[in-house]
Fold:
Amino acid sequence: MRTAQQLRTAGPPRAQTAECARWYKAGAEYPGELLDLPVAPDLLFALGARSTLDVPRVAIVGTRDCSGYGDRTARKIASAIARAGGCVVSGMARGVDACAHRAALEAGGRTVAVLGTGVDVPYPRGHAQLHAQLAEHGLVLSESPPGTAAFRGCFPRRNRIIAALAQVTIVVEAGHKSGALLTAKNALDLGRTVAAVPGPIDSPNSAGTNELLRDGAHVIATVDDALTLAGFPAAPELPLPDLTDTERALWDALGKGAAQLDVLAMRSGMTLRDCMSAMTSLELRGLASSGYAGEYRRN
Structure:
């Protein structure tokens, strides 16, 4: 057992992962897009598959305190990009970043997390499971040596890497002081495409995104807008199959956003048993699925 002094001086919790790879600037693994940066990292530390980067990449970023609207929108865009064969790039932060990563993973697609901490240090700590999933099924990158804890300026510094890696940066929700606006600025400085999702004019979470749109960013009004901007064909509209009354009620409840089964039962006015039965039917039809945290959503 460690003493109180040892606990106070211990470093950040480190993930139990395979040894990280080192990508030097002159090496074949190093992403060439980073050379566009005024100050490119001399070395990147990596956990996961290098092949994750071998497809068109779209950065999806935004506020840590996203609304239900931001959550749903980030997930829909990220899922569509992943299903289309693209790679979702973000920073593994709370809010929009985590929503984007999880949606890409749940779609069976590619996603890359760029950390401000060491590549083996999940931040925030609550995202340790997400970090492990990204390392196993995607890619985690950092320019900071393994074991590095969060420090002042580390997240703005990593934002430039997110912007450089992606051909397109989409800001889903961002307030006036959101770090996502810095990512957008970095992308613009690099000559990359920047887009934003419009939001209510009285919503603080949309103040930054609405300003980006006012200043000329591309408008993402639909998922197809995001796909088209990234160079993918629009997603085909599949007709909704015939649903029973309970299935339709649950489908409508899912339209208000992902939720646990008990919440969906309350939304739909059904008993938990009927809700479970209807959910099983929707899952078998491929219309709904459960996320890593146990919440259900439309596919």
Remarks:
- The chain is about 35% helix and 15% strand.
- The first helix runs from residue 4 to 9.
- Confidence is low (pLDDT under 50) at residues 1-12.
- The two ends are 47 Å apart (CA to CA).
